[in-house]
Design a protein that fits this description.
The complex is a heterodimer. Chain A has a five-stranded mixed β-sheet with strand order 2-1-5-3-4, sandwiched between helices. Chain A contains six helices and five strands; from the N terminus they run H-E-E-H-E-E-E-H-H-H-H. Chain A is α+β, with helices and mostly antiparallel strands. Chain A is elongated, with a radius of gyration of 16 Å. Chain B is an alpha+beta fold. The chains are: A alpha+beta, B alpha+beta. Chains A and B meet through helix 3, helix 4, helix 5 and helix 6 of A and helix 1 and helix 18 of B.
Chain lengths: ~160, ~775
């Protein structure tokens, strides 16, 4: 047990700020974000990579932070839901579309949905409806029936078409 | 924004909850991290039923970082009472609710897989789980009690303190008159339907933080709960701490759907453990495996229905015999067939109902409320409507029309003595038929059949007993304060777990008070500031809290108008209110803003009308005129079955809903969509299955399959707005989406199967295996 509880040092850049954290090798990235960096917007809904609530960007890719150990990510650039907007109270286009289309109710899955859609729409500017629903297939929501979430994604994609 | 100041009701106002939740600034129970907090891991039984022969916590207690390890012998003797306010005290205390035996941890035997045996409290969850692994539990397994009818017959007992496994029973009555009624009917159809065991699966599992300060005699609770007042009252009864010395807080809650209404054993165990510890905050955050294994089950229900009709298809009488599984430790009585029987006639004229019901304990996780706890009546009745129609050679929609309660029948007293009024079942059915274009669909269906493709249409109607208003639920409070700057706060007994109350109640207040919505602050979820109320559930908030908000707003407005009348030397009848200004009708320059009136009320009491006290506060409680406020809807669903794979593609889903005056149509449609998705899951995917030894088989989201975006269609909404008799004309609708969708989907699947001549399915889930089996059994 001493091996997994001996703390290691890991350097992470999270939402543009560098952090050095000492943590056990077994500590999940999601727990380090929440407990050590106090970024509690990243939610843990299942701890086995199925629900997508804990999704963050690691070096630009959407990944499940509950399936990574923080010590795996030395030197990585991480963006959490807190880093999706400017921090001045305005919402990102995906966040604004989610509000416009009632894409959230209880809000617990929402951070993962925002991160997933942000990455997907960045890489797929003109998705079909089937593409959108497939892109969301790894994010579970129990409140909305996905109706408002899909409409939010459509709104963002259509706005880009028009611009 | 498209809204008009002062006229917010009926507008799709964007939610004020959203900015914080979209940016990661919500405050869920695990987001508050108080220094010095200790963390809980439970040691649980891995056996469904058995005797604990050895329980050794020595190694766990010795692990560095472990503060305490408590077993049943440590905590159970501290615990005094185990009952829920909503369902009242147990029979031995003068109540009527048959609760299971009370304990927070197993004593010397275990009664389901997941039964908490010990609670470990440590410096972190990691250490707590390490220590939990060091606890030695030896259990001598016994034969578990499993299965509905098997549990009734079994000589083994789930609870040895009780005389049998039957918690509640009301045998189906039998008499020559009843037999004659059925035997003389032109048509008699009997079917048995069964639901699939489901669980609420809110995306945020349960969680609680409790700190008991023995030097102040005060307890602070922060929890993922639908009712802060319930958890406060429960904690007081459990520990004997004065309820006045307990504060319970719930900020954002990640969904509940009924699961977080009652206090369950783990939450009670954490309360007891913190009470015993007497110092540090103790936090338990349920993980998903625990949530699926040990929170609650629902929908493990079966009914045998017999419909007697005349030659034309009029329903003459219905016999309904329910049996439901309530697991080992339902947090209240568990049984819900009583309410189901009460509303079983639904939107139909059913002159005679002969009901029976039985609830049985089994060695599985306890049953608790899941969105529409009584839903079995609609889920089974609406499937039965299609079965009977097929037997009679009638189109299912036509068979419904023959029996629906029409506008001229209202008010209509059902066979169960419910008085239905202000409902529109024929209108919502008409709207669904029109939106779907049923004749065009039937042509498409026939064409598809000729090509070997299987399309099906299902409809389902229901009447929702919304705004449940009896017992503790009879009313809801609102306390409204206008501060010296003329802005208002309204304090409610509700909470934030997805219902948009901060937005919708602000719409009600701004409309009735006559102010900008941004001047209204809604405060809820904290017993230190929220008046005593039952919490959020039972599709009650729009109707009952909406009524309280309207009442408070109008009382405060009346006081403002009377102050203005005094200052303007005018008659109150000649004044009007808009945009936070009271003015003389037709003379807008004779006007006083709310802020000035508020300053007067607080600082210049001598200027107030004679007899009026200073300040601007009102405290009201709204009780609706009836125990239920009926809403209704019709759902229509079109599916295509892939005959090669058995997969179901939902091609269209249409809902026509009558929830009276809509406060916020966007929120109404969001509630429908979420409920329907849950219902779709309940038919196609979700199955909280156990094996023959009582082991739960679905303890991850890879086994308990929630519907995801690709399986869910776009929803199409129609609205009928007939006003209820409550203040504001609102009707509740939070549960109906989940109630009517299972039979709509089931009926569509069976209609598609019928295109191939396959017999209708009656046992959920309707998964690919069951569908392929049905197709394979069809005569070729």
């Amino acid at each position: 047990m001493s091996d997994i509880t001996a703390e290691l040092t890991v350097s992470l850049t999270v939402n543009g700020r560098s952090h050095t954290v000492r943590c056990e090798p077994r500590k999940l990235l999601s727990d380090v974000l929440r407990e050590d960096l106090h970024l509690t917007g990243t939610h843990v809904g299942c701890e086995h990579g199925a629900c997508g609530a804990c999704t963050v960007l690691v070096d630009g890719s959407a990944v499940r932070s509950c399936l990574l150990f923080a010590v795996q990510l030395n030197g990585a650039e991480i963006t959490t839901v807190e880093g999706m907007a400017d921090g001045d109270g305005t919402l990102s286009p995906v966040q604004q579309a989610m509000q416009d289309n009632h894409g959230l109710q209880c809000g617990f899955c929402t951070p993962g949905i925002v991160v997933t859609l942000t990455a997907f729409l960045r890489d797929h500017p003109q998705p079909t409806d089937a593409d959108l629903r497939d892109a969301l297939s790894g994010n579970l929501c129990r409140c909305t029936g996905y109706h408002g979430i899909v409409n939010a994604a459509r709104q963002v994609a259509h706005a880009r078409e028009g611009s | 924004m498209t809204t008009t100041v002062g006229r917010y009701i009926g507008q799709s106002v964007k939610r004020r909850e959203d900015p914080r939740l979209l940016t990661g600034h919500g405050r869920y129970v695990d987001d508050v991290q108080t220094p010095g907090t200790l963390h809980v891991a439970f040691v649980r039984s891995n056996v469904a039923r058995g005797r604990i022969t050895n329980l050794d916590v020595g190694a766990a207690r010795a692990l560095p970082g472990v503060e305490a390890v408590y077993t049943g012998s440590d905590l159970n003797p501290l615990c005094q009472q185990f009952w829920a306010t909503m369902t009242g005290p147990p029979p031995e205390m003068g109540g009527q609710t048959p609760y299971p035996p009370g304990s927070v941890l197993a004593n010397d035997d275990v009664r389901y897989v997941g039964d908490p045996v010990a609670v470990v409290i440590a410096s972190s969850r990691y250490v707590a789980e390490d220590a939990a692994d060091l606890v030695i539990v030896d259990i001598e397994a016994e034969v578990p009690v499993l299965g509905l009818r098997e549990a009734v017959a079994s000589t083994e007992l789930v609870h040895r303190e009780l005389p049998s496994n039957v918690s509640v029973t009301m045998p189906l009555p039998s008499s020559p008159e009843i037999d004659g009624l059925f035997s003389s009917a032109a048509h008699l159809v009997t079917r048995t339907f069964r639901g699939a065991r489901a669980t609420n699966a809110p995306m945020e599992p349960r969680g609680i933080v409790v700190r008991y300060d023995r030097y102040r005699g005060e307890m602070e609770i922060r929890a993922a709960t639908q009712s802060v007042h319930e958890i406060k009252a429960f904690a007081a009864r459990l520990t004997g701490v004065s309820e006045s010395h307990i504060r319970a807080v719930a900020d954002d809650v990640g969904g509940g759907f009924g699961q977080k209404m009652m206090v369950m054993r783990e939450e009670a165990a954490v309360i007891a453990a913190a009470f015993k510890l007497g110092t540090a905050p103790v936090k338990w955050i349920e993980d998903r495996r625990e949530n699926l294994m040990a929170s609650n089950q629902a929908r493990s229900e079966e009914v045998e229905l017999t419909f007697a009709t005349d030659a034309e298809g009029h329903i003459l009488a219905v016999k309904a015999d329910f049996i439901e599984e309530i697991g080992a430790y339902p947090p209240s009585a568990g049984a819900t067939a009583g309410l189901a029987i009460g509303v079983l006639p639904g939107p139909y004229k059913i002159p005679v109902l002969i009901p029976g019901c039985t609830a049985v304990y089994t060695n599985t996780v306890g049953k608790s409320a899941y969105r529409g706890p009584w839903a079995m009546e609609t889920i089974f009745r609406e499937q039965m409507m299609d079965h009977v129609a097929r037997e009679l050679g009638l189109d299912p929609i036509e068979f419904r029309r023959i029996n629906l309660i029409g506008p001229d029948d209202l008010p209509y007293t059902t066979a169960t003595q419910m008085v239905l009024d202000a409902i529109t079942p024929t209108e919502t059915l008409d709207q669904v038929v029109e939106m779907i274009d049923v004749p065009a669909f039937r042509i498409e269906q026939a064409r598809a059949r000729a090509e070997g493709r299987l399309l099906g249409l299902g409809v389902a109607g229901y009447v929702e007993p919304s705004a449940i208003a009896f017992g503790m639920l009879n009313s809801d409070p609102a306390v409204m304060t206008m501060d010296v700057s003329g802005k208002v706060q309204i304090r409610l007994g509700t909470g934030s777990h997805g219902h948009s109350i901060e937005t919708t109640i602000a719409q009600v207040v701004a409309t009735h008070l006559g102010c900008d919505i941004d001047d209204v602050m809604v405060i809820q979820g904290d017993t230190a500031s929220s008046p005593v109320g039952p919490g959020t559930g039972g599709s009650r908030t729009a109707v009952i809290v909406g009524g309280a908000a309207q009442t408070a707003s109008l009382e405060l407005r009346d006081k403002l108008v009377r102050i203005a009348a005094q200052l303007l030397e005018a008659s109150p009848e000649d004044l009007e209110v808009a945009d936070s200004i009271v003015s003389v009708k037709g003379t807008p320059q004779a006007a006083i803003p709310f802020a000035q009136l508020a300053m007067t009320a607080y600082m210049a009491p001598d200027l107030l009308p004679p007899g009026m006290g200073p300040g601007l506060e009102v405290s009201v409680r709204y009780r609706p005129p009836t125990e239920f406020t009926w809403s209704n809807a019709t759902h229509g669903c079109i599916v295509e079955i892939d005959p090669e794979t058995g997969l179901v593609d939902i091609r269209r889903y249409v809902v026509s809903e009558d929830c009276g005056q809509m406060i916020n149509p966007m929120v109404v449609e969001g509630q429908i969509a979420g409920g329907v998705a849950q219902g779709i899951g309940g038919v196609l995917f979700e199955n909280l299955a156990y094996d023959g030894d009582g082991n739960p088989l679905a303890t991850t989201f890879l086994d308990y399959l929630l519907p995801s975006a690709p399986e869910i269609p776009d929803f199409e909404y129609g609205h009928v707005e007939s006003l209820s008799h409550t203040l504001g004309g609102y009707k509740g609708m939070g549960e109906g989406g989940a109630i009517a969708s299972p039979p709509a989907v089931a009926n569509a699947i069976n209609d598609a199967l019928a295109q191939r001549g396959a017999a209708a399915l009656t046992v959920f889930p309707f998964g690919p295996t069951q569908i392929l089996d049905a197709l394979n059994r069809a005569p070729s």
